[in-house]
Amino acid sequence: MIGDNCSVNQEIGRKLGALPLIGCTSLRFQLAVNDVLANEETLLANFHALMIHLSTITCRAALRKVTPLAPAVRNATHWSILFSTVERYTKLHPALQSMDHVTISKYGIARFMLSESETAQATELLSTLFDSHEVTKALQDPTLTLIGVRRVFDWVSRQYPAMKGRLAPDSAVVNYPALETGITKTITGGRLTTREQEDCKVLRPHMLRHELKRRHARFWGPSFRKRPSAYYVHVCVVDTSYV
Fold first, then answer.
1. 8 A C-beta contact, residue 30 and residue 79
2. Distance between CA 10 and CA 166 in Å, rounded?
3. Angstrom distance (rounded) from CA 26 to CA 33
4. Which PANTHER family does the record match to this protein (predicted)?
5. CA angle 160, 162, 167 (to 5 degrees)
6. CB–CB of 44/82 below 8 Å?
């Protein structure tokens, strides 16, 4: 039921008469994080330029003399890699500071080095990225339900108000908001609105089949229960020592 962000998936669902697809929550969260990181684009660009330069053959050779760590390059399509990039910079920073002036000048590292204020910003940014990284891992849990997603998004919205627009139940990126809120209320036992009842009616046949299957399982379930095995217990012991 997940994958309505792709138009091809939506068309397949309509042609097959399947249930409406639910949007990818990881994508919604990625868009929310991108909104927060938009204000840090200059700093992120400096990170990227430094890591690209350190990834060259000559710089890697010089870097290996002071640390076994390799640079991590940012990937625009996977924001979670940005967490690894910033984290790697905070670990590489002491090693870069330990390089002598001749080496830094020889390999052109000096013009890519971040200032002390930018390094301080990187430390603060790492805290935000760490929280986002933990949320991303939670959203990938196969046992997570829509009500769990809703609770996570509500908590994140309170901690980072800038993400509220993307993570709201009626966000523009949600193609079937009434369906998702209806499923959430169904799980929690809440009262559905008229629109939510209309969108969730496609679930009733599946819910009824599940209920019938559960009732039948209760009916014939005892026939498959393992019978207790018979065994003997000594109720008394005759003393034969005098024989």
1. yes
2. 21
3. 10
4. BED-TYPE DOMAIN-CONTAINING PROTEIN
5. 85
6. yes
Residue 243, token pair as written in the block = 């024989």
Rounded to whole angstroms, how far apart are CA atoms 127 and 121?
10
Give dist(CA 239, CA 243) in Å, integer: 9
Residue pointed to by tokens 């390059």? 73
Collapsed DSSP state (helix, strand, coil) of residue 2: strand
CA distance 17 to 3: 15
Q: Name the β-bridge partners of 22.
A: 2
Alpha-carbon distances of 230 from 114, 210, 227, 233, rounded to whole Å: 78, 37, 9, 10
Query: Which regions in the chain score pLDDT beneath 50?
Result: 207-208, 210-212, 216, 219-220, 224, 235, 237-238, 242-243
d(CA 72, CA 88): 7
Q: Determine the Cα–Cα distance for residues 129 and 36; give it in Å rounded to an integer.
A: 10
Q: Which residues pair with 208 in a beta bridge?
A: none
Can you give 4-17 as a three-state secondary structure string? Answer: CCCHHHHHHHHHHC
In the structure encoding, which two tokens stand for residue 153, read together? 């998004």
Residue type, 6: C
Q: CB atoms < 10 A from the CB of 61, how many?
A: 10
- Cα distance between residue 43 and residue 82, in whole Å: 12
